[in-house]
Design brief:
Elements (H helix, E strand, L loop, with lengths): L2 H43 L3 H10 L5 E3 L5 E3 L4 H5 L8 H4 L17 H15 L1 H8 L2 H7 L8 H4 L24 H9 L1 H8 L8 H5 L12 H9 L3 H6 L5 H7 L2 H5 L5 E9 L7 E2 L4 H10 L8 H12 L7 E9 L2 H4 L26 E7 L4 E6 L25 H9 L1
Parallel strand pairs: 3-6, 4-6
Antiparallel strand pairs: 1-2, 3-5, 6-7
Helix pairs in contact: 5-6, 9-10
């Protein structure tokens, strides 16, 4: 063998040995990493001794507690689900600090499951303060504070003893929202949004939380939150409506999106009392009871507000200070939450103006007058359809009526003069 060949051969062999060493090193790291991950998984699956004592009894499927209302609350915790949950690493005691092992089981009376769930939600606040603060300002918390049966607490949506990482959540099945809103989720699942997200697996299509939020769920019918949610995805919608819809900005302010995009829905006109200066919806500090009492006193026959009675409601809302400027702004809405979720493809949306702008049209037969409760819920009272067509209502409807809206020429002239 020549010297050059020998040197070349030795060099190649050295490179092979170096490469082999690098390969072995890389393989070793992979094995070590797999071992660490495996140990992590095993460690995660190991139940702490203190928790194992709790599970001695609480893993029994028959374990339950009789509550004050006569119902039974299950105290069973699935051992495997607990060991794989994100909460297993903090243990039972962090959330159940009120439990004294020496005096357990406790004979403390529990009124009902809902009050217990609300009480135990305070433990969640220890670690999840931001989420809890958002929840406290939500419609869900408002309902819970009012004692509304079935109002959700933390454990209503989160299985706290089997909670997985939220990154692993797959809400396409509707959980947990479907638990309470089954009919609405069924409407969503059949809608263009639901078909895109669930059937076609287009993850960019919205699911419940994309429009309504997670912990800070607000009353859907109040404010512009839902419209803003729509425009958040459909960024070109404003420009698209400008191309064919007269007074498009006015329409988008006064007509809810589902009123056109759920073409089979029943529509109604909701006359809402607003502060003229701020534009904010009038809020009843008594969560609607004050408004209803006031309106019932005016509508003595209980058959819905007529034009004179609507005028009196507005005058009464202004009080002695006529400068306070309470006015009426009307909105075209669909009649139910189910219909609001029956959204179709844009090619099937309402584009025929006569659907609404027609004298005696069905849309103008259903009329309500509304304010907001403190939690944002819309509190409505029925009004007669004549409130939209009477000259008496002109000053009360200054923030709503659109010339030509009902094809009543005399009223159009009166509005222009007003």
């Amino acid at each position: 063998m020549k010297t050059g060949q020998c040197v070349l051969s030795n060099t190649l062999q050295a490179e092979r040995r170096t490469g082999s060493a690098k390969t072995r090193t890389a393989s070793l790291w992979i094995i070590l990493l797999a071992a660490v991950l495996s140990m992590s998984t095993v460690a995660h699956a190991v139940i702490k001794p203190a928790d194992a004592k709790c599970l001695t009894c609480h893993s029994m499927p028959v374990l339950s507690k009789t509550l004050g209302d006569g119902s039974k609350m299950s105290l069973h915790i699935q051992k495997d689900a607990w060991s794989e949950s994100v909460h297993s690493m903090i243990g039972c005691n962090l959330c159940h600090r009120d439990v004294d092992p020496a005096a357990h089981p406790s004979m403390k009376a529990v009124a009902d499951a809902q009050s217990y769930a609300i009480e135990k939600s305070m433990a969640c606040k220890t670690c999840h303060s931001g989420q809890f603060e958002a929840y406290e300002g939500s419609i869900h918390a408002s309902l819970a504070n009012e004692g509304y049966e079935g109002a959700p607490a933390c454990s209503s949506c989160h299985d706290v003893h089997a909670q997985k990482k939220m990154s692993e959540a797959k809400p396409t099945g509707g959980e947990p929202c479907k638990t309470c809103h089954e009919d609405i989720f069924a409407a969503y699942a059949d809608s263009m949004h639901g078909q895109a997200h669930i059937d076609a697996e287009q993850i960019q299509a919205p699911i419940c939380i994309d429009c309504h939020g997670v912990h800070d769920v607000s009353a859907a019918a109040s404010g512009d939150s839902i419209k803003e949610a729509c425009l958040g995805c459909h960024e070109t919608a404003l420009a698209a409506h400008d191309e064919w819809l007269p007074n498009s900005v006015l329409h988008l302010n006064l007509v809810s999106c589902p009123a056109c995009h759920s073409p089979m829905a029943d529509r109604s006109v909701d006359l809402r009392l607003h502060d003229r200066e701020s534009g904010e919806l009038i809020v009843d500090p008594q969560d609607g009871s004050g408004f209803e009492e006031q309106v019932r006193a005016i509508d003595t026959e209980g058959d819905g507000l007529d034009p004179m009675e609507l005028r009196e409601v507005v005058r009464s809302a202004n009080g002695d200070d006529s400068s306070s400027g309470v006015t009426v702004k009307g909105r075209l809405e669909v009649s139910s939450g189910v219909q609001a979720h029956q959204l179709t493809l844009k090619a099937e949306a309402v584009r025929d103006c006569s659907t609404c702008h027609e004298s005696g049209g069905d849309t103008y037969q259903n009329v309500t007058v509304s304010v907001a409760g403190e939690d944002g819920r819309i509190i409505s009272y029925k009004a007669e359809e004549e409130t939209l067509t009477s000259a008496v209502s002109v000053d009360a409807l200054g923030g709503f009526y659109t010339v030509g809206g009902t094809r009543i020429r005399i009223l159009d002239i009166l509005v222009v003069l007003a």
